[in-house]
Amino acid sequence: MAQHQQNGHWHALWEDYGPKLLLFARQLTEARDDAEDIVQEAFVRYWRARENDPKLTPPLLFTMVRRSAIDQARKIQARQIREERAECLMQSEAFFESSLEEKERQEQLEQSLRQLPADQREVLVLKIWGELTFDEIGRTLEISPNTAASRYRYALQQLRGILAPSLL
Which residue, 35, 38, 36, 27, is CA-closest to 119? Predict the structure, then answer.
């Protein structure tokens, strides 16, 4: 019975956080497959850590995704040449999955997001799509909550400037 409840907990956790974590992981890597691997690794790490400390909160998954991404980046340096050849294919992938009607708008938003500095883009994704507080973002990125809030404000300001001409 406890195993069934635990499986239900993990399923609910995946439903709530899986897409958000994948989007965050996509900010840390260019390839969707690598991002999926990172998210899976983070869930395994979280599951193992919860065995020792059941008080761990789900937002810790974002920190684990970030650390898994760093670990993976160190492992794939030898694959850089192959990834550079495939870069053209990866650039055509969208940050978001949706219906065909929204594809043009998503491509515009993706291009706009890519124009932001990486540190601002990372905070923006965690805040909007990850639904984390600035305190949680600060812990995830190992920065102060005030720095996270500032990066968020700057990112929104830059996005307004980038997107404003296209909205006219």
Answer: 27
